[in-house]
UniProtKB/TrEMBL annotation:
This is Dihydroflavonol 4-reductase. InterPro entries: Epimerase_deHydtase, Hopanoid-assoc_sugar_epimerase, NAD(P)-bd_dom_sf, NAD(P)-dependent_oxidoreduct. GO terms for cellular component: cytoplasm. It comes from Brasilonema sennae CENA114. One of its GO terms (molecular function) is aldehyde dehydrogenase (NAD+) activity.
Amino acid sequence: MRAFVTGTTGFVGANLARLLLQEGYAVRALVRPNSSLNNLQNLDVEVVKGDLNDPDLYRKIQGAQVLFHVAAHYSLWQADQDVLYQNNVLGTRNVLAAARQAGVERTVYTSSVAAIGVHELGKVVDETHQSPLEELIGQYKKSKYLAEQEAKQAVKQGQDIVIVNPSTPIGPWDIKPTPTGDIILRFLRRQMPFYLNTGLNFIDVGDVARGHLLALEKGKTGERYILGNQNLTLKELLDQLAEITGLSAPQKSVPAWLPLSLAWIDERILAPLGKPPSIPLDGVRMAHQPMYYDASKAVRELGLPQTSIKTALQDAVNWFVAEKYVEVA
């Protein structure tokens, strides 16, 4: 079976491409002309150059029975509102229309827990929760919500689409790296003297990839499935890293007002003056809300694996070291 996959040069997509090849799928990967192909090195993947918004995208998809639409633009900068909408919302609309035109039998659309939102009191939420659009912090979350609405609209028009909502993946091939990968790297480089009092749901990226395939095989059309595992505070995650590496975890937290103030100055005052901002204001605002999720539906209905987060962290550390992101003394 031939699978058409977007986003294979990124973190989740690279892990998914490897799993599909391992399971005997022929993989055709949509890659932007200027994208790095480092995550696809030595993989038996058919690469087609193009963009999510290409008007002739259906021609590139033709011949594939299934589609995994993983690609998305990720940014927490407020200035990126237009590019987020163009890629995540209009791009998803175009990809799904192209899949329909190309005769794709089933699509797995990669949304995010960002589209679901959080409980105002930090309580754990599942797929039935939905924060109002206006309460989603930042343009990235809003764009993922709107993109998910595109998928739901396509389902109403008769398209067979399953939606998956990964939480925070950890593991190898985090080439960019993601914000979580950046935390791991800062820890390894001993550049994290303090931590922020926040919490997230974490999952092994290999389990996220497997969850995509399970959604294809077992998911119900139009349903959303949270691909997550363990809810941890950032301090608990750092403590696990300390156990793995033998390095000391930070013991003191940063008062909430400090990063918020720095981010506001960075993005609202210095950035317009030409200084590249380094702390996204929306990222700091997000961190003030614990983002805890319940993935039991995916575990129950799909058989989503629940690899320990410590294993995922060890795999991430090993990959970053092997790829020379960090020097080991």
